[in-house]
């Protein structure tokens, strides 16, 4: 069968019609045999004429998934046991003129994992997958997760190249450091030089170009340090005055410098080149005690400005990652940026993402919390395992360290959190970590931080997510995963503000995807709530039951599929808003950075599924996407019920300047009568939330409180507060009038308050400036669209009784 590289066996089998699409219906079960077999990839190639004259030839394998043995012309030349470790193999003596044959045999990862488990013992995992996965350096989500299928991919998942050279640059490091006063920057540049034969007069030309592509520094190095293995090494420093600083999105521009290194022979001809883009910024993780609360802060300060990190967790965007195109990566990251997301956390059960992902984050100013690839398990610390991890992490840090978007290296996902209640994490233990049950501590507390300190010393390292010292999921120290809502005791989503942590790195609520996505994987007879296919496409073991609880707590029963979809999506929207709104309120300025980040679980999916994602596999936003966009806007106003028949009022100003604003408060009956109206003026300090005076709100009375924030005559933020739970409300028809403008602008008005107005169209590629919003009488709400043709139909829905 023909196969593509990069690619997987599953993709080749799909293209050949040999397996059904595992994303469709229940077919996932029918393809499990693929991951249990061994597979042979083979190809022939003719050595080009200009390659035959080269002094050195090498094969570069950027990623083999996972247990692979490589033969060239019948001779074994390489072996891989880690899908994250690239291989560089000198084949000068193995290739021949004319036709060459390359073979790669991939052994079953699950069978190899079981053999290791039988040899070294079964280890504890929690939640997901086959327990042998902790021995296998393979993307852990391939074994299944509570949002993804079991699809044990196999194959050359990244590119394979044949290289010819007389000399090459290797192990390049470009380590920038911005001075505390931001007035200068120093870039330390080093690299190894491998020469095919001894040469005199070899030099390196270092050039640094500013964001306008003007060369601002040029240096030629002629004295190189010889190494024991016959190669050479150089190190140099470049000083820049008044650097153009890289800022996170919403705080400034994202200028990128370019470093160009040219290896030259004695005649000045180029032997090899390396280039990288750098963003110059000063980044610190600030952890300092509070004067008025227990615990300490956990926030990122960039260019001496504290930054609230509202954002989301990122998982691989496909179960078959080689088919994610560069354009699709850019679309995903752009969607995050359009939702006002400041940070994406690359979760530790996936992959070290493709270069284009980080490049786009660099360009758009999105910070990246980068996990190393360990998740939910007691990983071993056997010497061979540590050696493999060292090679993996060194390769990852070397490849990714130039990206200014990466704010943090993090050791793992939830290993400390789960080990602590099981009694396997003793923070006071100082003995031999390799001998304890939680031996992964050897990796997270010694091996990984040592590598990061050596290769990327200016970027902070954090042991795990979550991690809080002696108490792994500490609400007062470090970062926290807040899962008392949905998991655990299934607390009300309205309790999110009470479940605060210094940096909330996971929280979320499930919802079904939009109907067109459901239709992509179901037959018509399976399109009803809780059908067999729908439940198969919810990988949380008790996902439907937990969804039912939150639906029952919030809205009236939904009997048809469309009502069920809407109900789950409304609950997800309200839950995420409750968390973001409540936690941003606690970002209160210098010395009061009580909550400094909130990362939603999750932004994306790896297949079409009911999950916690805000945007489904096909890049179709759920309603929560628009709710999150509003809640993470630079300027927001918030309301919350508090005792004594009052509502607390606050506002967030995440800009660099103080704002003078006017708030208009309106109390509306459900029947559309304006009961009261008040106004007040305030000044909002920059980079923080400001508590404002409370106003009347009686939860026993069925009326809606709306707040509109004005700067001069322009509404810059708005919010509403409804009596809850919604299921008790008898909601009259809001009589929504919709007018379509010639340029795709929609104007909406309502005679009575409308909750959760949701606009859809039969046009597939419509984008909306806003959606899933509340409408109050007396105002015209404008929504701009693209891709909405005049002939396209429009559907307007809202929360009905």
CATH topology of the domain at 9-162: Jelly Rolls
Output the CATH class name of the domain at 9-162. Answer: Mainly Beta
Q: How would you state the average pLDDT, rounded?
A: 96
**Beginning-to-end CA distance, first to last residue:** 57 Å
Task: Give a brief description.
By secondary structure, the protein is α+β, with helices and mostly antiparallel strands.
Keywords:
801 residues, alpha+beta, Jelly Rolls, Immunoglobulin-like, six-stranded parallel beta sheet, four-stranded antiparallel beta sheet, 13 helices, 18% helix
Explain what this protein looks like in three dimensions.
This protein is an alpha+beta fold. Among the domains are: 154 residues, Sandwich (Jelly Rolls); 97 residues, Immunoglobulins (Immunoglobulin-like), CATH 2.60.40; 69 residues, Immunoglobulin-like (Sandwich), CATH 2.60.40. The protein contains 13 helices and 42 strands. The strands form 12 sheets. A 6-stranded parallel β-sheet has the order 25-24-23-22-21-28. Strand 29 and strand 30 form a beta hairpin. Helix 6 packs parallel to helix 8. It starts with 8 loop residues before the first helix and ends with a strand. It comes from Dictyobacter kobayashii. InterPro entries: Beta-gal/glucu_dom_sf, Beta-mannosidase-like_N2, Beta-mannosidase_GH2, Beta-mannosidase_Ig, Galactose-bd-like_sf, GH, Ig-like_fold, Ig-like_GH2. It is found in: Secreted. Homodimer. Belongs to the glycosyl hydrolase 2 family. Beta-mannosidase B subfamily.
